[in-house]
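I hope you will forgive my troubling you with a question about protein structure. I am sending you one protein, given as its amino acid sequence and as whole-number tokens for its backbone shapes. Thank you for your consideration; the sequence and its tokens are set out here:
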Amino acid sequence: MNGITTSCTARILCSLNQLPPGNLLCSRSRRSFVIARPRLALRAPRIICMAESYLITKLESAEKTWKELSVRLADPDVVSNPGEYQKLAQSVAELDEVVSTFRRFKDCEKQLEETKALAKEESIEEDMAEMIQSEISSLSSQLQELEEKLKVLLLPSDPLDARNIMLEVRAGTGGDEAGLWAGDLVRMYQKYSEQNSWKYTPVSSSEVCLVTAI
């Protein structure tokens, strides 16, 4: 019986020795042999863009169009044609904010991906892990805000958006206080126009009324 057991043990050990190193793990007890495969290292999951695929497609198309228009603006033939140059410059200006926001979105997404990969390392101390989780939360919020902003920027523009407006402010019922309120409201619109680099021209005014063209 001992001879059979020894022979069987020798055959098993011989078979295990013939296997490529690292493929199998073997542990032996008094009565049995346990063969187990090593655990494969888990790869960090790829960070999927938070934005919908259709949104990314539109943004990439807008960025491509912006690059093409920017190249055309440097064309001497376009520069020598004021009408065409102004038209192209306006088209580029309309896409400037979309492209710059999209690039910020991509940078933020890349930072979030790198931070999440760092959080998976086993040698990180507890304090550092808390800082990383806080950074992940902050970047996720920024990414969500940028996505919502991009959705608004991609909405079709109204043809009347680029035109001037005539704004008239009249004091309602309330005597002098209503007139003071109307004056404050006009000054508020004027300050808002200055902050956005809009030109405004007062057309007419009175003690209780001021008409401004913006």
Q: What stands out?
A: Residues 53-153 form one domain. Confidence is low (pLDDT under 50) at residues 1-50. The beta strands are 25-28, 33-36, 166-170, 201-205, 209-213.
